[in-house]
Amino acid sequence: MTGISPSPKVIVVAAVVAGITPASDTAEAGGFAVREQSASGLGAAFAGVAAGYDLSSIFWNPASVSVAQGLEAEAGASLVLPDTEISGTASLEPAPALQPFLPASVPLSFLDSNGGDFAGPAFIPALYAGAPLRGGLSVGFGFNGPFGVTTEPENDNWAGKFEGRTSRLKTYNFNPVASYWVTPTLVVGAGAQIEFADVALKSAYPGIGGLAGPNPNAVINGDGFGFGYTLGLLWRPSNGTSVGAGFRSSVEHTLDGETLVAGVEALGRAKVSADLEMPAIATLSIRQRVGSRITILGTMEWTDWSDLQQVVVKSHTNNPALGAASGAVLTALPFHWHDGWFFSGGGEFEVNDRTTLRAGAAWEESPIRNAVERLTRVPDTDRTWLSVGATYRLGPMTSVDLAYAHVFFEDGAIDRTTEIPGLGEIHLVAEAEQDLDIVAVSLKMKFGPPSRP
Predict the structure, then answer these.
(1) Structurally, how many domains does the chain consist of?
(2) Beta-bridge partners for 130
(3) What is the pTM of this model?
(4) What is the pLDDT of residues 3-26, one digit of tens each?
(5) Is residue 331 part of a domain?
């Protein structure tokens, strides 16, 4: 085996890295995870993704960087086209001081029942690179956004406006990895996660306009870095079999930011912070050749959403107008989610030396199991994936992946209560209906002849 010496081709990869800034805009896996990290993976409903098919497998299994035979890179992107609608009704359950004068539940019929479309198109890029070194060692990286969500109702005056209007979570994750051939059939890998998260939450502020008025947005925003690791192994007991297992650790962020009422500077601002933990993910995949042209694929994945019980937002400055007191809890966002599971199966067919076709199906269990846990910000439910895709080799150094998937969501009931200081609690009963289409493309590039057979 020979090493890779510095060359102008490295500059090409660096230029690609500099030109792509991945940020997840919408959650298409369970909770607010983003699964669209690989065009080839999407084409088979992510069956076999941790078993080392190409460099994008690095996201699930750092040992997959060993697939690079020379200096290689992969740049891809997914276009997500969601159709999400939430409609419902709200009622006021008066505070104790108002109970002698009001019924136990006051319908807020002046609020619109239909929130309209809650999510727009999202663009999700990803970038990978890798190369072998001497002595069975390979190095590389992944650069993507593993978590994200953006929701915003078309109708600002809908029944759930006090529960939530705009929600935005974006993550930027740099994942340097290395792998080592322990034996001729077994590779182990490890990597680091350096992740930046940016969060903004908006809801209607009842202090201006009351319950019925065109309320401005109460805003909580914050950002911060978090760190974690990845581990994996890749076992190839025969030429036709590849088994991969990968683990992405949880990443805890301390988000520093502020709270304010948009457009009302007279109310001032308050410094806030919150701890947000992104869940750990474990993936097991297999690729099994069953003929000269056919490969069967499978994946099972677990996500540790049960660690996400609530997110507590604390104030660090005093601002009575915003309900902020230094050192006190400003608000707590309840989740109480459960661990999520994902199962997929698929296959590939090599039409000829240039073209490979693939397809797959998957079922994903949401971490949200009942209406009380389901947020208008994340109206997640169980879902079924159906996918098709293809790889076309433009030449010995370049290939293109194309994929399409449709995701069928179960309808989800929402039953949430939001406290309005001095007035009582607003009870929202709603229903979420959603489905989505995903189109993905990636370009794989090799820079020079293989340095490893």
Answers:
(1) 1
(2) 72, 140
(3) 0.90
(4) 333 333 332 333 333 334 455 455
(5) yes
